[in-house]
Amino acid sequence: MRVLFVCLGNICRSPAAEGVVRTRAPDWDTDSAGTGNWHVGETPYPPMQKAALARGIDISDLRARQFRPGDFDRFDLIVVMDRENLEAVERQRPMGRTTPVKLFTDFGPEGAGDIVPDPYYTRDFEGCLNLIETCADGLILSYGTSPRQS
Ligand code: 4NP
Predict the structure, then answer these.
(1) How far apart are CA 17 and CA 30, in angstroms?
(2) Rg of the Cα trace of the chain?
(3) What does the pLDDT look like over 73-129, one tens digit per residue?
(4) What's the pTM value of the predicted model, to 2 decimals?
(5) Percent of the chain as helix, strand, coil, to the nearest 5
(6) Helix (H, G, I), strand (E, B), or coil: what is residue 11?
(7) 93 CB contacts (<8 Å, ≥6 apart)?
(8) Is 9 in the pocket of ligand 1 (CB under 6 A)?
């Protein structure tokens, strides 16, 4: 399974999602990207790195990059954190590409909310990671842990 996680800056939510999923489904091919370009080349935001590491999720090796239309060809599934990400990604869909783009919360339990709020603004890194871990479990359950090249 090749899955790309997308948020706005690629320094908080999507690298955390990538870190959680690659730890729980090590046979998956994971990556993350931001729709914005402000943080390209940077490590994940230090408070998010620290909160993730406290849960055994080391994301210090990740570096931010910007989402690009070619990502539609490289992944089986694109998972976004909120509706703005969804719109920004869909605007870049090349003609004829059918790669699904889904909200991460589609894989969470009913009532968990319909977006992953941005902790860069809310400062709620723990709540963000709780939601990411729950949605990651649902995602992995949905697609299985063996590689699929759909
Ligand atoms: P993320 O959070 O989308 O979860 O990585 C953000 C981090 C930085 C900015 C926006 C969102 N920013 O505008 O700098």
Answers:
(1) 10
(2) 14
(3) 999 999 999 999 999 999 999 999 999 999 999 999 998 899 999 999 999 999 999
(4) 0.96
(5) 40, 15, 45
(6) coil
(7) 69, 72, 99, 101
(8) yes
**What is the distance between the alpha carbons of residues 62 and 11, in angstroms, rounded to a whole number?**
9
Domains of the chain: residue spans and CATH: 2-142 (3.40.50.2300)
Which residue's alpha carbon is at the smallest distance from atom 11 of ligand 1? 9
What stretch of H or E contains 24? helix 13-24
C-beta atoms surrounding 104 within 10 Å: 28
User: 118 is written with which tokens?
Assistant: 């941005």
Residue 2 has which token pair? 């090749």
Q: Is 13 a pocket residue for ligand 1 (Cβ < 6 Å)?
A: yes
Please answer whether residues 44 and 60 qualify as being in contact, where contact means their C-beta atoms are separated by less than 8 angstroms: yes
